[in-house]
Amino acid sequence: MFKRCWMRPVRSAALVVLGLAMTAASTAADPESSLVSAIGEIQAGRPGRALQLLSQLTQTQPNFHLAQFLYGDLLAARSGKRGIMPDSEDPRVREFFEEARLRNEQSRFVPAPGLVPAGVLKLADEYPYLVIVDLPHSRLNLFQNKGGELKLIRSHYSGMGRNGFGKKASGDLRTPVGIYHVTGWKSDNELPELYGAGALPLNYPNLWDRFQVKTGYGIWLHGVPRTTYVRAPRSSEGCVTMANDDLVGLKPYVYSNKAPVILADKLEWVPKGEVAHDRDAFLSRVEAWRKRWAGKDTEGYLSFYGPEFTTGGMNLKSFTEHKRRVNAGKKFIDVKLADLSLYHYPGEAMMLAEFTLNYRSDNFSSSAKKQQYWRKNAKGEWKIFREENLD
């Protein structure tokens, strides 16, 4: 039980148990900043100002249920009552505590200036924007890609599947972990009210998911019903949800350019120089593979493939026989790579190289978008174990 006095800094039951210690942000019009400012006023011992801010927020954004929850708890504290405690049997109250905890921690997971995601070694210029969703911490980050440099331009709260992340099967109510692309936009008038302002569909299951025989469909980034500002952290059937204003703000950056969306089970932020070192090392591997192929060094080219390699119904043995036979009949081979992106694939001990392969020989030419999967063997050598053409 917490002793409370209105003349002292008020600590409502909810705020004490959550351990909230947010710094008051500058007054801003958006609901997120207003909520943070109110909590900052409570921590600074100005409960009257906090009540004023929360009163304003609940009037201007009456569907912001977490704000209503904290406002009610603060009023209870003012009257000397126990307030709402996290041991409540009400599942909605438990969701409020979880949402408040995640919001309190989010400032720790926004990268400081100069830090970039360790998992993105190189992003092709064809993708001017990149979305990374930090699933465990309910945070969506939008990066601008300018000349190969990533810059964070938006970051906000988001929700995920009821059973968390790590989707494997249809109906498991989990959000997938992986690298996807936005495939378009579904407008408000095309969808039930559940989706709010609209939806950005993703290409789940992607090539890697299908290779692993993962099932399910309809994984989207979407809004929420107008009756609420946001949904609980775990409340969807597997989609990533966010406030309608955040979705509308995100849409112009990503819907028309097939922007990559990384749904991550773990994120690490590192200095740009560290990523540059890893990027250059892996670029040299991919370039060495390309040169051996273009130089008709068939055995050197084949040495980049691991024993478990598969592609298009072929294993390493049949692939090796095919390449030896084809390359032997060529007078020349020209191989060029364009739009190259390199990633540490989330949730897997592997690298993904995605690029456009432009191939030309004396009797054949082609151009295709390709994904190439690399992982280390027992000796610590990086080998290709899967190649596929994108649909």
TrEMBL record:
Residues 129-264 form the L,D-TPase catalytic domain. Keywords: Cell shape, Cell wall biogenesis/degradation, Peptidoglycan synthesis, Signal, Transferase. Residues 1-28 form the signal peptide. The active site is at residues 222, 239. Transmembrane segments: none annotated. Pathway: Cell wall biogenesis; peptidoglycan biosynthesis. InterPro entries: Cds6_C, LD_TPept_cat_dom, NTF2-like_dom_sf, Transpep_catalytic_dom. GO terms for molecular function: carboxypeptidase activity; transferase activity. GO terms for biological process: cell wall organization; peptidoglycan biosynthetic process; regulation of cell shape. This is L,D-TPase catalytic domain-containing protein.
